[in-house]
Structure formats: structure tokens, C-alpha cells
Amino acid sequence: MTRDEAVAILDEYLQNKNLRSHCRAVEACMRSYARKFGEDEELWGVTGLLHDFDYELNGEQHHHPKDGAPILRQKGVPENIVRAILAHDDDPGFVRETMMEKACYATDTITGLIVAVALVRPNKKLEEVTTESVLKKYKDPGFSRNVNRENIAQGAALLGVTLEEHIGNCLQAMQSIHEELGL
Fold it and tell me: 3-181 has which fold?
């Protein structure tokens, strides 16, 4: 699957600008981790880009990401990508086996925290954000309450990195595409 094919699927199913930016942020983080682990950067990036493609399907009756899996399979998306996308869900019965599956889970929630930290900065730019500032907000349960800190910590552990390393890896990846993200 190429990035252009993934973008076409994203264009077909996901209209919300913020969700599209989130998918792009996860793509950047996934690419960063692929480089770190010596894996296929294009494959991991496409996975990150597609991970929330189905978020707007079926309104309140939607079960993301499970409802999207059949659509991806029908479009010929490789099973390793489908499994990694399913892995970013909190389904306790799903066992994350590959590093790509673990990375998709790990990079999803942390991107939201990093964006929230950027948005409280005076000029709302990622360039002002540091690993230390994200870590400080991570430790503040009153900040961005919807961000699941347990998922972030578990994601770092799954990848075998410290929380600080995980924040730093994702922050650098997102800073590298700050213009695309509008931050």
C-alpha cells in the first residue's frame, strides 16, 4: 500500500480537519519509530495515517476501529496494517504482537497530549514545546483530562522506551511536520 492510496482512503472517509491532522501526527510518529527500530518506514507511516480513517462512520452506532477493518480488507489493505490499526483500540482481548501494532497503540494518545500542550503556549506552536513541558503536563491530572495517561505509559512500556524518550520521540516527529499540522 502506498501513501497516495492511504490518502485516497482518508479523503473518502474522514472529513474533520482536526482528525486528519491527528492522523498525520500519528503517521509522523510511526515513521520515527520505524526508523528507530529499523523497520519499513513507509509501511508504518501508512498505518499511522489510516489508523482513524473510520472515525466518522455510522455516528453513535460506530465501533471504531472494528467497523473499519472490513472496509480496509475490501480495499485490499494488507492484513498487517489492519491488525496494527485494530491494535490501537483498548480492547483487552487484543494481543499486540508486532512492534508495528505496539507503535500504533503507543503513538495514538501521546499525540493528543502534545497538541494540547502546544495549544496552551502563547503562539500555539510546537517549536515552543519541550519534552519537559509535556512531561510536566502529563503529571498534571487536571490538564487535558480526556488524555489517558495510562495508555501513554503502557505504550512507552510496550515499545521498551522510557516515558521521557517516548514523549521526545513523538514531539520531534511532530515538530518536523509542524507546518502541515498548523502548529
Answer: Hypothetical protein af1432 (1.10.3210)
